[in-house]
Amino acid sequence: KNQVEQSPQSLIILEGKNCTLQCNYTVSPFSNLRWYKQDTGRGPVSLTIMTFSENTKSNGRYTATLDADTKQSSLHITASQLSDSASYICVVSANKAAGNKLTFGGGTRVLVKP
Amino acid sequence: DAGITQSPRHKVTETGTPVTLRCHQTENHRYMYWYRQDPGHGLRLIHYSYGVKDTDKGEVSDGYSVSRSKTEDFLLTLESATSSQTSVYFCAISQRGAPGTDTQYFGPGTRLTVL
Asked: Contact at 8 Å (CB) between A52 and A76?
């Protein structure tokens, strides 16, 4: 069964500090991995997308890494800001042979405190 | 929210009543999706559409039906709402490709409570 597990479930960090979120998946055959940011009461917004051949992708202060061999990804937030308080969702897509099926992780809730 | 609106934004209804949620887009994207989001489950695909009058089931389609008579509108209907359908419902759109091949843009969500 395809699964996406995210850790931690939640974390609290001080403004200006860095943090790293983890995503482990068992989706196969793999096509791509996306990280989404979801503000409270809003829909998710795409941050990054990585395919099998990419091992890092940045979007401003957000840097995602991918190790397709170990089926792990991380999202690093640098110099956190209060606006980074949100849930971060890891989404893994199977390839066309598997119907391009998406599997969503449960998310990591990040709270940035001043 | 990428030119996507959902209505209503909040709804409280009683078990056994029919409910229709509407998703409207102004992006002229081909693909539209309905998801539900529940604590501990993440987002789960209910149904999606790959064109006018072309729809397919997702992983949690039981108890739901959809219709798409125009490119811009995708309706989700709960024929007889149950308490297990209490959830937050998100509509999403993508310009091309089957689910997973293209970035999806999400609407603001509809919070549905079934008493």
From this structure: no
